[in-house]
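G., the chain you wanted modeled:
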Amino acid sequence: MRFARLLALVAAAGLAPAARADVTPHPLFTDHMVLQRDADVPVWGLAAPGEEVTVAVGEASAKAKAGDDGKWSAKLPAQKAANGLTLTIKGKNAVELKNVAFGDVWVCSGQSNMEWSINASWDAEKYKAGANNKMVRLFTVAKRTSLTPLADQGDLKHFSGWAESGPGNVGGFSAVAYHFGSHLQKTVPGNVAIGLIHTSWGGTSAQAWTSTEALAAVPELKYYADAAKGAKAPTGPGTPGCLYNAMIHPLLPFAIKGAIWYQGESNAGKAAEYRTLFPTMIKDWRARWGNDFPFLCVQLAPWHANDADGVSWAELREAQLFATQTLPRVGMAVITDVGDLFDIHPKDKFTVGVRLGLSARGMVYGQKIVHSGPVYKSLKVEGNKAVVSFDHVGGGLAGKYGTINGFEICGKDRVFHPARAAIKGETVEVTAAGVEAPVAVRFGWKNYPVTNLFNLNPDKKGGPALPATPFRTDDFPLTTATPPAKK
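Predicted structure as tokens:
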């Protein structure tokens, strides 16, 4: 009775708690943002339970009603590319977001080579000084882990707001992502805004970026999900699922064009497993978004990895190539010509970003360009010669800087020998002294390969275009495969 009387006195004094909460959009929705063009666009946030919410931008609008938990979600109909818009979210209050664009949004993720900033890359001052294209928009997800998927938008302090790119803010942004976005903005017709959501963490593994549910569903990967169950908070970035939970899940269901990915170094010791893990992660993200969006990866750059002639990184590169051949709409940028023997972080991130951009232009935007280097197609043995055919030859094959390097050949003894290679039309003929009956060919099959096979632009002007991906024609056991258990 006393408590009820006290509540009545508080209410009479005008001190009762507010009957409503202000409409608050999710932290992904800020000034300068990019909404995905040509697709239905979810917009969501919080309000008072039962509150009616209207979302409007340009000619598009949608309505929603907050549930008992205060959550609401509206879906704007698909719109063409446009700039300089205001996104208005109205309930009992109104929120106006300025300088909004409809364009293309790309999620940019991975480990340190994706995180690597403009400031730490070649020609940093040049690129910062030239960062005056306000149609490239930047958003950063700061590092965070979680044992469970973050679903409370009030618990997303690691989300930055959107910003137009400029000399003052690109220096600390992902260099690969920035160069990728800049290349697309300059080459995709229509002056389309490019939104880049950067969410990466150096030294992390693919299993940390994959949901534990997806890991548990694959028998070979279930042990990762079991390990996550045993983890205790606070957890480090190596815990399976923890980066998906904190740095990918909170992005859902934001409408996107696709994703770019630069990762694999931390999984090279289990490269054979990556053939399963990497596609599992891609399929997991696509299922979570409900969209088989394009996914473009960067093949690992050459590095000694404590043994320049070792092959664990070659096996990881093959696993990345395998994903492009077994899943739809997966592309890959080959960068065998921009590695550094002594630095796991090669400083030429401009070439990496541009090659991802070329892959997107050819595979996603349908431009008729050379967007991939030569990819192994078939092997034919003629006497002591192994004749290798390729897809993606463009205007033909070329050896950059002279003699073709990087080929090896073996006979039935499976001992590989350095080989001579000669371009014959759209094929490469491979021979080696002492190998009279070739069985298999390998190309660039080293941690630090030295290769120079490229394709040509179709007009055969301007020299070599893109490098060939390393490959092997055999199916001999991988060095990183887990040996069968002894009975």
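The two ends are 74 Å apart (CA to CA).

Shout if anything looks off.
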